[in-house]
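**Discrete fold encoding**
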Amino acid sequence: MNALWVLLALVAGFLQIIRNAAQRSLSDQAGPWGATLVRFLYGLPFACLFLGLVWWLAPPSTFKIGPDFWFAAPLGATAQVCATAALIQAMRASSFGLGSTFQHMSLPLAAVVGVLFLGDRLSLWGWVGIWGATAGLLLASWPTRGIAGGIAGFKAGFFGLASGACFAVSANCYRLCGLAIDSSAPFFSATFTLFCVQALQSLVLGGILLVFDRRALAALAADGRASWSAGFMGAAASACWFAALTLAPAALVRALNALVEAPAATLFGWIRFKETIELRRGIGSALIVAGVVVCVLGQL
């Protein structure tokens, strides 16, 4: 397996932390759907630029689009929009660091879906990892401070699970997209897929907000610096992520993302948003990451 995917996944993980922070900041004014749109709409010009550069510097030997692309691209685009909105809601209901950790439930969820619907088989250590990550999620989101605190905790856990499930779908869809174009040209396949899905996401979600929530669009335009920052970081992270998915299975790429993002998000939340991490939630987050790692290593 080409080791380039490791570097790409690591870079994507750090870029996603910066993008998530920008989206979290915008969500107070633009709401969860406006903050979701910013990564696609403001990232689209950069996705177009990345595609043009790759086509110029490293064009594919052949250009073909397999039939799987036309099914996987819209499904992955829809799942990613839902995953991003759920992630923002999880961060708003808990904290930036914990909300970012919740999304990594995508790995064990993807494993369960594979067993139930695709006939995959998990080793003993794979199941240990799944239940360990689930225990971590319950520990991190369990209520401790009355009814209001309990509702917030379960709300964060619910949106975290939804985010992880949707990210699991989108990751596998984008891997299928890359393989349907040209697996021997990962950068072209990644940037072409990125441009197509971000154009679709911008058109559909932007059109919905234009009709039903123009205030969200106005909020994005008012804070242009944060919006363009989120767009650039999102497009760059997705380009690296999509290329890594062309080179390696989605489970491995998401696992490496988890190892990078979980501690970095906690540290960034403490520095940027002045968040404090309770011991119980810190242990729960550590269990989620440990479960993810054990799950992947058990399948290697």
Observations:
- Residues 159 and 199 are 26 Å apart (CA to CA).
- The first helix runs from residue 4 to 41.
